[in-house]
Amino acid sequence: MLLPLLSISTALLSLAGFVQAIPQAIPSRPASSNTPTRAPISLAPAATGTTACNNSPDLCNRNYNNITHMGAHNSAFLRDSATSFSTAGNQFYNASVALSAGIRLLQAQVHLENGVLRLCHTTCGLLDAGLLVDWLGQIKSWMDANVNEVVTIILVNSDNQPAATFGSLFASSGISTYGYTPASTSAATTWPTLQTLIAAKTRLITFIASIDYDTTYPYLLPEFNYVFETAFGVLDINGFNCTLDRPSTQRSATTALSAGYMGMLNHFLDTDQGLGITVPDVGNLTIVNGPSTSVSGALGTQGSQCMTEWGVKPTFILVNFFNVGPAMAVADNLNGIRAVGRTDVSTDVLTASSKSGGSIQNGRSWFGIAGSAMGVIAIGNFVWM
């Protein structure tokens, strides 16, 4: 009974890749949505005139854990022309474009495929964004060109690989030279200021789930030693809250914060397709990513609520399709800044009619995936995290 169910579910997910949002107007200033392996990289400095850190002079002297860092959930997995605007994609723009637009947290899923770490959405047969090492190299190139920017990476370690497996790729990409090693191997109440990290040239903070601390790669930080998260896989627009979902080692957000943990909001809405299959909800994106603090389900509302409940602003926020909303406005409001030096991107929900450009991801059609990998299935929350 299991194999027929898996086959049926896979076929349904494949067909779901062709379900599109309502076509929007073509943006007047489109940004490339190419994948990280060949993406154009902005060589412009992060700020002009007044020296800025993470797009604001006001953030330079703030501690890293006293800033809300806006993040792109599943940042490597795109919904664009090369993936037939697949419903498995979580972003319209690649990591380089996201960074230039103000995103400072990039989250992605990593799988071991034929002995190599690849950016794959649940499985490499579903959506393959290429080699992890290439993606890291693109981020390093962006950081090389934007010297006053502190970037955070969070990786989902889907196959429980050790820190050394990741560390070798961080080293070979060259990005390890930016890696920050904290004084403590567990949560701490005090982190350096952005300016301190910039001056020390340790501008990359990396958290990886399901690794143990390795003294050979001390800049690769076990995520749940430092970060707690709210629930993900939310299906009800009224279902966002500030309750700690993980790690299980912490009883509540209050106890985690007291222990020095940094809070992360998972603020992305999914829709149930049946048989346990969920896909990102694009129909409510403008509400979900919106800055309103009075609309149920809005990012601004959850951000404000958690700041009130926790007594501190969330350190990290993850969203789907960061350009819509725009989500960056919520981080700016929480940080109390007026940002400078960002690249403008369309705030539209992009569809096939948007002509936003292609990507260099695995471009097989969903029918092709269904035909060649009927036994591969992405069920429930495993699809997205």
UniProtKB/TrEMBL annotation:
The chain crosses the membrane at residues 365-384. Residues 1-21 form the signal peptide. PANTHER family: PLC-LIKE PHOSPHODIESTERASE (PTHR13593:SF80), PTHR13593. This is PLC-like phosphodiesterase. Keywords: Membrane, Signal, Transmembrane, Transmembrane helix. The keyword Plastid does not apply. It comes from Hymenoscyphus albidus. GO terms for molecular function: phosphoric diester hydrolase activity. It holds the Pfam family PI-PLC_X. It comes from the Eukaryota. One of its GO terms (biological process) is lipid metabolic process. InterPro entries: PI-PLC_domain (IPR051057), PLC-like_Pdiesterase_TIM-brl (IPR017946).
